[in-house]
Write a structure and sequence with these properties.
Elements (H helix, E strand, L loop, with lengths): L2 E5 L13 H6 L3 E3 L19 H14 L4 E6 L2 H11 L4 E7 L25 H8 L5 H10 L24 E6 L7 H10 L4 E5 L5 H4 L1 H13 L1
Parallel strand pairs: 1-2, 1-3, 3-4, 4-5, 5-6
Length: 227
């Protein structure tokens, strides 16, 4: 049985994948959607004690317990995390899939791609919904906003360190979201053009297809896992 490990974005938690997981499990996949330190069920951890390395170590610990290589998926900031994990454990990862995610080159940070400069939690609800969840129902958008937490302040300036020998040997795939205002489509395209992926799929979604189109997203993940 193949395993998907689904990594959430900067302000969220494993809960954001809750609507996607059942569709993947129905198709026979094992699915793990962990909370990073300071998020979800681990949100009681103090942000000043959380770093990118904390995130990476959390996933590495999971990978080390898996008997076979996994399909590692990152949403938004989670793209940065899975790239760094891939550098540390290339033999444990079968494929990398980025979902409207930061696909950074060696030496880049979220700041260098325009991310992490403004918190969506500081905006009004209306501005938040338009930026993050434009195609979500009002109930879902309010639910997402309620559960979001600020990421550690040092996250956006953290630099990714990857090499062709480790990270570079793992096949990469990208799902772009064409109505995304958090990471606009031109930024997504620039990243997957500069760091080429084996296949690109497009969704007419805002930044959270995990919430607004979970079945379509699950189908796309399976497509990329099997091509």
């Amino acid at each position: 049985m193949e395993t998907f490990i689904l990594i959430h974005g900067a302000f969220s938690g494993g809960w954001t994948w809750g609507k996607v997981v059942p569709f993947l499990e129905k198709e026979g996949y094992n699915v793990i959607a962990p909370d990073m330190p300071g998020h979800g069920k681990k949100r009681n951890m103090s942000p000043e004690h959380v770093t990118m390395q904390s995130y990476v170590d959390t996933i590495v610990d999971i990978l080390d317990k898996e008997p076979e290589p996994v399909i590692l998926v990152g949403h938004s900031m989670g793209g940065m995390v899975i790239s760094q994990v891939a550098e540390y454990r290339p033999s444990k990862i079968k494929r990398l899939i980025y979902v409207c995610a930061f696909l950074l080159k060696n030496g880049e940070s979220l700041h260098s791609r325009g991310g992490g400069r403004h918190s969506p939690l500081a905006a009004s609800y209306e501005a938040f919904k338009e930026l993050m969840c434009a195609d979500c129902s009002d109930a879902d958008a309010r639910w997402v906003r309620t559960l979001m937490v600020p990421p550690p302040g040092n996250l956006a300036g953290t630099v990714v360190h990857v090499t062709p020998e480790n990270y570079g040997r793992i096949p990469r795939y990208y799902i772009e979201c064409l109505s995304d205002k958090a990471i606009p489509p031109p930024v997504q395209k620039q990243m997957y053009t500069e760091t080429p992926c084996k296949r690109i799929l497009s969704m007419n979604s805002s930044h959270f297809p995990l919430i607004s189109a979970p079945e379509e997203l699950a189908k796309n993940l399976i497509t990329l896992a099997t091509t």
